[in-house]
Structures are given as structure tokens and as C-alpha cells.
Specification:
- The protein has 146 residues and is mainly alpha-helical.
- The chain has two domains: 101 residues, no CATH class; 41 residues.
- 51% of the residues lie in helices and 10% in strands.
- It has five helices and two strands.
- A two-stranded antiparallel ribbon has the order 1-2.
- α1 crosses α3 and α1 packs across α4.
- The longest helix is centred in the C-terminal third of the chain and has 25 residues.
- The chain starts with a helix and ends with a helix.
């Protein structure tokens, strides 16, 4: 497990392009140029987190920042902003490793549309419309059978 996690840490750091630092101020470049010793220590740390089912509170800290939705829009309109959470870079690395390894078998995940790769909230609207059409057809058919 140790060598596998080390290779995952190296791969994740080399493919991360997060431009923003979290609350501790460390950018991805700190990890990219940290070298094999840093990757080894991160690998050991992540292995201990997983084995002992523990994360320190500093790994769960984030900074909330406003993000402009439409730069050409009204910058004084609060609806033109959305909040983004900036986590610490070492947390992002661990999250990336875990997200590739974890899969959900919950039926509710089929109906998760926002914040899911390849999905949008427009798909949710379409699903609701289709459901209403099916319900309407079923109601008409049951009325006709009476």
C-alpha cells in the first residue's frame, strides 16, 4: 500500500493545476518542487490518516472567497457572485487521491446533477419535466380505465 500511495501522491501533485492557496498560504509549486522526500512524507502522513481514520482540524479548514460569475455583468450585484471554498493544498492532494478510489453505490447519486462531472442542473429540470409527463399520462390512463 505504501508504494502505491507514494506513486499516487507524485501523480496527483504533478497533475494538479490549482492556482489558489488555502488558509496556510501554500501553493501547488511548494509541493511540485518539494521533491521525493516531501512526497514520501505526505504518503506516510496520508497512510496514517487512512489507517487511523483521523484528520486533524487543520486539514478541514478552508477560506471562503467570492467568485464573479459574469465578469461582464454588474459587479455590484450580489447575485453575480458565488462562494468558493479554498482548501489547503495538502488537503486537495488527499481529496484527489481519495476521489479516484471511492465510488458510491447509493441510488440517490443517480439524481445528483450539480457539482458532478458531465452533469448540469438543466438535466435535473429535464428529468422533472419527463417525470411530470409520465405522471400526467398515468393519470389520464387511470381515468380512462374507470
Amino acid at each position: 500500500m505504501q508504494h502505491l500511495l507514494l506513486s499516487l501522491v507524485i501523480f496527483t501533485v504533478s497533475h494538479d493545476s490549482s492556482p489558489s492557496a488555502g488558509p496556510n498560504g501554500l501553493h501547488i509549486e511548494s509541493f511540485i518542487y518539494g521533491g521525493l522526500k516531501l512526497f514520501t512524507h505526505l504518503s506516510l502522513l496520508y497512510t496514517l490518516f487512512i489507517r487511523h481514520c483521523y484528520l486533524p482540524s487543520s486539514f478541514m479548514q478552508s477560506t471562503i472567497r467570492p467568485f464573479v460569475k459574469n465578469k461582464g455583468g454588474d459587479l455590484t450585484d450580489p447575485n453575480n457572485y458565488r462562494a468558493i471554498a479554498l482548501a489547503n493544498m495538502e488537503t486537495k492532494i488527499l481529496e484527489s487521491i481519495l476521489m479516484d478510489k471511492l465510488h458510491s453505490y447509493d441510488d440517490c447519486d443517480k439524481y445528483q446533477y450539480g457539482f458532478k462531472k458531465g452533469h448540469s442542473t438543466a438535466m435535473c429540470t429535464s428529468a422533472v419535466k419527463k417525470s411530470l409527463i409520465i405522471i400526467e399520462i398515468a393519470a389520464v390512463m387511470s381515468f380512462c380505465l374507470l
